[in-house]
Amino acid sequence: MSNVTPIRVTGTFSPSGTQAVNIVSPIPLEITIEAAATSIVTRVPSSITNIILVAANPLRLGLLFYNDGTANQYIKFGTTASLIDFTVKLTPRMFYEVAAPIYLGQVDVISSSTNGAIQVTELT
């Protein structure tokens, strides 16, 4: 690797895509990269009442959501999502990937109308 300038990294580093990483440290570092072996994709129809979007899963490595409808989707990491109590609001045609650390608990959702659905991908 030529013309590579070291970058000081503190905290958590989450690479995406393909990239070269050169870590210089005065002490040995242990790096663990987990790769998902399973992908479960589910299409959940929009509901104007709270529903469980994804059940709790201690083996979860990733979660991705795509709102394929015209309604707003209100996703809550935990139980009982509402239009005013939610974690993330997905507007129409919006994609959301849960960042590390991955939430392992139940995920609920409520929609502003019954138009469309949410595509959910859970990686384990």
Quick overview of this protein structure:
0% of the residues lie in helices and 32% in strands.
Word description of this protein:
Strands 1-8-3-6 form a 4-stranded antiparallel beta sheet, with no helix packed on it. It has a domain at 39-123: Sandwich (Jelly Rolls), CATH 2.60.120. Helix content is 0%, strand content 32%. The chain is elongated and about 55 Å long. The chain is an all-beta fold. The protein contains no helices and 8 strands.
Keywords:
about 120 residues, mainly beta, Jelly Rolls, four-stranded antiparallel sheet
Secondary-structure element series: EEEEEEEE
Q: What is the CATH fold-level name of the domain at 39-123? A: Jelly Rolls
Low-confidence stretches: none
Top CATH class of the domain at 39-123:
Mainly Beta
Binned strand content: 25-35%
The CATH architecture of the domain at 39-123 can be named as Sandwich
* CA(first)-CA(last) distance: 33 Å
Query: Any idea what the radius of gyration is?
Result: 18 Å
Fraction of helical residues:
under 10%
Tally of helical runs: 0
Which of globular, elongated, flat, extended, rod-shaped describes the shape? elongated
Biggest sheet: strands, sense, closure?
4 strands, antiparallel
| pLDDT averaged over residues | 86
- Describe the strand arrangement of the main beta sheet, using strand numbers: 1-8-3-6
Quantity of strands, as a count = 8
